[in-house]
Amino acid sequence: MTKRDLVVKIAKETGIIQSDVADIVQRTLDSIAGELIAGNDIELRNFGVFEIKVRKSRKGRNPRDTKNEVIIPERAVIKFRAGKELKEAVEKLDPAQFR
């Protein structure tokens, strides 16, 4: 599903015009991104938590030239942890349908 698909679906379900829905969806995503960039976690009840984690520095190797090691610096990454209800709903899915 794309952002556009989401906008169309919400517009149909609510009767709000698509341009207004698109603006609301974009503002929501911008707010989430802004909070993450500021270093804050985002908790959406019954959905999940977006949080900033620091990935440690580590050694990496080029598969074609395994003798040369490269130091990969530590960096901040976004992690998502599904909420209880979402996790339970996903666990009920049949894995065969995704192959």
Word description of this protein:
The protein has 99 residues and is an alpha+beta fold. Helices cover 40% and strands 32% of the residues. The protein contains three helices and five strands, in the order H-H-E-E-E-E-E-H. It has helices spanning 3-14, 18-37, 84-91, and strands at 42-44, 48-55, 58-62, 65-72, 75-82. The strands form two sheets. A three-stranded antiparallel beta sheet has the order 1-2-5. Strands 3-4 form a two-stranded antiparallel ribbon. A hairpin with a 2-residue loop joins strand 3 and strand 4. Helix 1 crosses helix 2. The chain is extended. The two termini are 18 Å apart. The model has no long low-confidence stretch (mean pLDDT 93).
Architecture blueprint of SSEs:
Elements: H1 3-14, H2 18-37, E1 42-44, E2 48-55, E3 58-62, E4 65-72, E5 75-82, H3 84-91
Low-confidence stretches: none
Number of DSSP strand runs: 5
Order of helices and strands: HHEEEEEH
Biggest pleated-sheet summary: 3 strands, antiparallel
Radius of gyration: 19 Å
What oligomeric state do these chains adopt? Answer: single chain
As a percent range, the share of strand residues is 25-35%
The proportion of residues forming helix, as a percent range, comes to 40-55%
Amino-to-carboxy terminus distance: 18 Å
Q: Spatial order of the strands in the main sheet? A: 1-2-5
Structural class: alpha+beta
Q: Number of helix segments?
A: 3
Molecular shape: extended
**Mean pLDDT rating:** 93
